[in-house]
Design goal:
Elements (H helix, E strand, L loop, with lengths): L14 H10 L12 E4 L5 E3 H11 L21 E2 L2 H8 L2 E2 L13 E2 L3 H8 L5 E2 L10 E2 L1 H11 L5 H68 L17 E3 L2 E3 L18 E16 L2 E18 L4 E8 L7 E8 L2 E8 L4 E6 L9 E10 L10 E10 L2
Antiparallel strand pairs: 1-2, 1-3, 4-5, 6-7, 8-9, 10-11, 10-17, 11-12, 12-13, 13-14, 14-15, 15-16, 16-17
The structure holds zinc ion (4 copies).
The site of one zinc ion has 7 residues, from loops.
Length: 393
């Protein structure tokens, strides 16, 4: 059927026209303005996408609620419901009023498609929370009230308060994380205790088994002990040997010692031989101070290295002096402490610290006459011997 257009100047724009158009832009299910519209390919009825989807699910079919067109009956590639772009544009351009009109919003009208952006993000009349709510400000109000609040009233706009609140927040975060850690540790301890309790249980049951076995053994042993012993007759294999007689002597076998003989340990003592040689210096001689040097000092000593200290023996001569001297004493931990006896009865103490008894080491022995003997002289005469050590073997 061909349609002929009515001239534009014959169309009447009035309230009834607007009402009719308004009804045509409504969903056939919810009667609200079409939202994301779908139009029936057959009858042209229009629905919101969500309304149509919900209706089909409830009805259990894919039919048009008005004319019953079933999408399944259409050829492949044909959709029963189509999106109408023109209707969508008309609906989006409908003008609406802001709900905050009486509460500080300056916009007279908004396009329907911008409604939520305006109300939630742009509207000066929308309700806001103070930005400082993170620090604890509880103030809420519209845009104008908020500007005034922040400029004049908000306590948390002050920098020192912000810092204080930040610090206390960090402290409390630290406490929260510490608490979490303690809870986790507590949990771990509980698990450990459970494991230990299970181990104790299993050990207890093993112990009970062992006790049972032990009891059985004891009972067996008791039974065996209660039985009379078997009648054992000793069997002699060889007759006892007769005593031997050689002439008038009679030989009786010697009894074996009850304990094996233990040989005393042989102590290994190593003897080293040394020669000390150099000079003698008298710092006091016949009671008078002096520094007279006598060359040709020589001492031969043997050192027994043994664990209880090293005994020292030896002899001494100064050049040109024939009287023999005997040495005795010890060396231990680098200390040489010896006594010298002359054959004429004189005695002297020789002493040295930090001595290294080794070939080529220097040596200095201080001495003091402690007894003059028959020879006479002065007790308390003293001096030192100084020289080198030579190891002879
Ligand atoms: Zn609807
Ligand atoms: Zn239809
Ligand atoms: Zn507004
Ligand atoms: Zn505030």
């Amino acid at each position: 059927m061909a349609t002929r257009a009515v001239p534009k100047d014959k169309v009447l724009y009035n309230s009834s026209t607007a009402e009719n158009i308004g009804v045509m832009l409504q969903c056939q299910i919810c009667s609200d303005f079409l939202n994301n519209n779908r139009e029936c390919r057959k009858c042209g009825s229009m629905f919101c996408f969500d309304c149509l989807d919900k209706w089909m699910k409830e009805a259990g079919c894919s039919c048009c609620p008005k004319c019953g067109l079933d999408a399944k009956e259409l050829p492949v590639g044909f959709e029963a419901f189509l999106f109408n772009n023109f209707v969508n544009r008309v609906v989006n351009n409908l003008e609406v009023t802001c709900p905050n009109n009486d509460n500080g919003c300056c916009e007279k009208t908004i396009k329907r498609c911008n409604y939520w952006d305006h109300v939630e993000k742009e509207c000066k009349g929308r309700r806001l929370k103070c930005e400082n709510c993170v620090y604890g400000c509880k103030f809420e109000g519209n845009g104008l009230q908020m500007e005034k609040h922040k400029a004049e009233q908000c306590l948390f706009e002050r920098e020192e308060i912000k810092q204080l609140m930040k610090r206390s927040q960090i402290d409390s975060e630290g406490l929260v994380s510490m608490n979490k850690q303690l809870v986790a540790e507590n949990q771990q301890s509980k698990q450990n205790i459970e494991v230990m309790l299970r181990q104790i249980d299993s050990l207890n049951s093993e112990l009970a088994k062992e006790k049972e076995i032990n009891l059985q053994y004891q009972q067996k042993l008791q039974t065996m002990m209660n039985q009379p012993p078997p009648n054992v007759v000793p069997v002699s294999i060889l007759p006892p040997p007769p005593p031997y007689s050689v002439g008038e002597f009679q030989y009786n076998p010697m009894p074996m010692p009850s304990q094996p003989l233990v040989m005393p340990p042989v102590q290994q003592v190593i003897t080293r031989k040394f020669r000390f040689y150099g000079k003698t210096v008298w710092t006091k001689f016949q009671g008078k101070g002096t520094n007279s040097e006598v060359p040709g000092w020589e001492v031969l000593i043997d050192v027994d290295d043994n664990p209880t200290g090293d005994n020292v023996r030896g002899s001494n001569k100064n050049s040109g002096v024939q009287i023999e001297k005997k040495y005795s004493g010890f060396i231990r931990d680098g200390i040489l402490d010896i006594t010298v006896e002359w054959t004429d009865g004189r005695r002297a103490k020789y002493y040295s610290n930090n001595i290294l008894l080794a070939h080529g080491s220097p040596i200095k022995l201080t001495f003091e006459i402690v007894s003059t003997g028959k020879q006479g002289g002065t007790t308390g005469d003293c001096g030192y011997n100084q020289g080198l050590i030579e190891q002879l073997q």
